[in-house]
Amino acid sequence: MASVYRLLSFHAATNDLSIDGNFTGLHRKPMESVMMNVSPLRSIRQKDSRWRSLGTVKTYFEVMASKDPCGLGQELKKSDRRHDLKDNDLDPLKDFEARFLKFKKQDYLENLDHYQNLAQGQSPKFMVIACADSRVCPSKILGLQPGEAFTVRNVANLVPPYQHGASETSAALEFAVNTLEVSNILVVGHSCCGGIRALMSMKQKSNSKSFIRDWVSLAKSARLSTEAAVGNLSFEKQCTHCEKESINGSLLNLLTYPWIEERVTEGVLSLHGGYYDFTDCSFEKWTLVYRESLEGGSKFAIKGSSTWS
């Protein structure tokens, strides 16, 4: 995506920032999340008798998955796995044994010195924050080798602000920056993100408790920016916009950590955003610039935006 769009998108993501770089919008009342609207099979059969003749849940999902590769196809895979385990009574980890032994023979033993050095300690230059989505493996996508990147994955690849308190992501950040002294942090988002779709589908009020709702609400300023910028577009396009907007929000949240802001100001730590689109196998990347008195009076800008395809 063009650099101009990045800047416009990036400035939209800063709407809830106070003068000291902290998110003020994070103290608003959380919104309710509504997961994907998939009707139970019983309701489907009541509404449309055509599915009665098909006879199985699998058949229904096969038809629907062809129309929605980002959604219902996952349900079909679940059905297939349950069926295979029941019929074959296999150890679900059996295949991992063969993969591990292959790794040991073709990788570990052939690079024994490297792995023995890693056993003594690690000194990665990168920390990668990626989504927990099974389709988005940063090591596979970016060719990361053991020892190259300290990695944490969570729903929707979000970075909570410093004020949010302890979480697995903030703990990983503290260790990577203060102990390992990584010189780069890369936040990787992706297409068809279920967490962002949940965020964009939220209702304003709810009395129910949801861990997903509470977590993705951390990116609610990205939703507000998206609605302001592309609210007239389709839901799919809004989700794509928000997937990228939330990455910028996470980059700004990184700067709420005092020890990250200090290192970025000193020039010893760089913050990067990345977006992996697995529908066409492309990767966008950009770098955050943060310093006093940038052109236009802002503290934030982006550079090095490019797309690999």
UniProtKB/TrEMBL annotation:
EC number: 4.2.1.1
Listed CDD domains: beta_CA_cladeB
Record keywords: Lyase, Metal-binding, Zinc
Catalysed reactions, as listed in the record: hydrogencarbonate + H(+) = CO2 + H2O
UniProt name for this protein: Carbonic anhydrase
Cofactor note: Binds 1 zinc ion per subunit.
InterPro entries the record matches: Beta_CA_cladeB, Carbonic_anhydrase, Carbonic_anhydrase_CS, Carbonic_anhydrase_sf
Matches recorded under Pfam families: Pro_CA
Known function: Reversible hydration of carbon dioxide.
Cofactor dependency: Zn(2+)
GO terms of biological process kind: carbon utilization
Residues reported in the UniProt entry to bind Zn(2+): C131, D133, H190, C193
Keyword Zinc: yes
Record organism: Dendrobium catenatum
UniProt entry tagged with the keyword Transmembrane: no
